[in-house]
Amino acid sequence: MIEIRHAKASDVEAINEIYNYEVLHGVATFDTNVRSYDAAINWFNAHGSVNHPVYVAEDKEDSEGRVIAFCSLSTYYDKDAYENTVEISLYVHQDFRSLGIGAKMLEHILNYVVTKTSIHNVIAVITATNEASIKLFKRFGFEDGGTIKEAGLKFGSLLGITNLYKLIQR
C-alpha cells in the first residue's frame, strides 16, 4: 500500500536519489550532472507555495516508509503572465515502475490542482521517446502541444521533447 502526501524536508534525500538515478541512467531529465543534496534542498524550498507543491508516494509496507516516487509542480517560466501555469514533473523509483504508482500520483496532484489552486494550465515536457509517460499523461486528459526534435543531447543522442498540456476546468 502506498500513501501519497506532501513532501517533507526529511524526504529530500530519497527524492534526490530517485532523480539522480535518472540523471545517470535515464532520459526523463536532460540534466547530465548529479544534483547535490544542497541543490536538492534549494529545489525543495522553492516549492513551498500552494501552486508549487511536492508530493511523495510512501511505501507503507516498508518498515521505514520508503519514498518510492515524487511529483512536483514548478514555475513554468519566471514571468508574471505565467503565474497560473505550472510544469509538472513525475518520477518513480526504478524498482517500482509499471505498478500504477505514476497514475496514482498524477490523479492525486490533478485533484489537488482543481480543488486547492489557482492553476489554469499544467504543462508536461516529456522526452519524445518516453511513450509510456506520454500515454499516461494523455490518459489523464493532457493534450499534445507539439514535439520539438533534437532539443537535447544526452548519452550521445539528440533527443526530442513532447509538450503536453491540460487546461484545468473548475
Task: List its traits.
170 residues, alpha+beta, 7-stranded mixed sheet, 7 strands, 34% strand
What separation lies between the terminal Cα atoms? 30 Å
**Quantity of strands, as a count:** 7
Radius of gyration (CA) equals 15 Å
- Label the structural class: alpha+beta
Low-confidence stretches: none
Which percent band covers the strand fraction? Answer: 25-35%
Mean pLDDT: 96
Work out the helix count.
4
- Strand count, sense and closure of the main sheet? 7 strands, mixed
**What's the helical proportion of residues?**
25-40%
Shape descriptor: globular
Query: Which sequence of strands runs across the widest sheet?
Result: 1-2-3-4-5-7-6
Compressed to H and E, one letter per element, the order equals EHHEEEHEHEE
Account of the 3D structure:
The protein is α+β, with helices and mostly antiparallel strands and 170 residues long. Helices cover 28% and strands 34% of the residues. Helix 1 crosses helix 2. The longest helix has 16 residues, at 101-116. The chain starts with a strand and ends with a strand. The mean pLDDT is 96.
Spell out the blueprint of helices and strands.
Blueprint: E1 2-6, H1 12-25, H2 37-45, E2 54-59, E3 67-75, E4 85-92, H3 101-116, E5 121-127, H4 131-139, E6 143-154, E7 157-167
Parallel strand pairs: 4-5
Antiparallel strand pairs: 1-2, 2-3, 3-4, 5-7, 6-7
